[in-house]
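Hey,

Quick one before I head out. I ran the complex with zinc ion overnight. Inputs first:
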Amino acid sequence: MLRRQMAEPVHEHNDGHADLLVVGGDVVTMNARREVLAGGTVAIAGNRILAVGRTSELRARHPGAAVLDATGTVVTPGLVNGHQHLTGDPLARSCIPDLLPPGASIFEWSVPLHAAHTEHDDDVSASLSALESLRYGVTTVVEAGTVAHPHRVAAAMARVGVRGTIGTWGWDIEQGPYAAPCDEVLDRQREVVEAHPPGGLVEGWVTLVGHDLASDELLAGAADLARELGTGMTMHISPTSSDPERYLARSGRRPLVHLRELGVLGPHLVLAHAVWLDDEEIAALLDTGTAVAYCPWAYMRLGQGVARMGRHAEIVERGGRVSLGCDASNAGDLADILRAAALAAALARDVRIDPERFGADTAFELATVAGAQAVGMGDRIGSIEPGKLADIVVHDTRNVTWTPRGDHALHLVWGTDGRTVRDVIVDGRIVLRDGHSTCIDEPSLFEAAAEAQASLLARAGISVPHRWPVVPAD
Ligand SMILES: [Zn+2]
């Protein structure tokens, strides 16, 4: 297949001039034929991929283009993270105890932290998350819901150079930071989406907390708003048995059945988690084209029952839309989608005791082309093909992790994680080079984060309990 591909003419989007050539890597295209171009080149014009093909031909055709030498590397599409909290947790990374009863990490820790976040905290926190994402080759991030300052978060994402969505955390419960009556919540959602129109580097999405923290009126109104504005919607549902229990008590129906009755489900919606589903809920998900963001590390880390209850591999096998996610810095921790891809494949096999199920190639699809489709951006990102946006990752192979080299799919999913990412291009721009940001000063950001953490924890009234005694020794 490789030889046949290389003998074919260069695939080119139009007759334009390339601004940048990524030269000489093994290009894992994730195109319809899943071709890998050995020692190939990607030509980029503006923010789009102009051509993908033979190095000699593209170099000759575009002599004036800048060159990113990718000789000997593996070049992949930018990875997609379908659910990531950019604020709240990043400044409290590894601070929330890991042995807590269900819900305590959210309501005793995350909620007070969110309530105490300043605009500056949101900016620093989102900058850290965006940088971490790029560091692991993630170029598109669906933001799981900022509480107070979405515009600062959007600005931070754009400054660091990551693509993604932004939302403000909507809920109309009685108490909680920035909880408000339904109309007010919807007005705020509209304002965020209109400020960051669909199709931009950072686009506004209708973003509810979800769970059991919204009235039927808000759930239905949010879905209507997303449809009206032509944008996406995301919310949390059923990572544990708690949401099914509460929905059954409140409506007599399980969550996805209830959401279907309200008209909330549909292609515009990405449900985070959807771990505890029954057969009827899976049918509702598939029938309506609703997508899921699957964050396996979070469920395992929090002991939520994914190995027993999760059916995400089945959803994929039945044609459902699934992306991977890393959730939060204290639930899934590293924003490393390759690590999540490996776990997704491993779980799919182990729960069925079936070593022939769900290969590395399928897992890598969830991280790229299928994940892009799940978050509604399949026409723009997820593969290296002419006409798509130029979101590209260069994986360094001159290290022990990649030596000696094996099959591309197996090596990407099982043989490595995001830590060998060397360069990242988003929207045609090199935003990470040799593992470091080209857009921001990393040491200044790290200093600002340490300062912001101390002040945030003090304002939230949280002192971090240490598992081991820390003894002054100076
Ligand atoms: Zn979440």
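The CA atoms of residues 8 and 53 lie 9 Å apart.

Talk tomorrow,
K.
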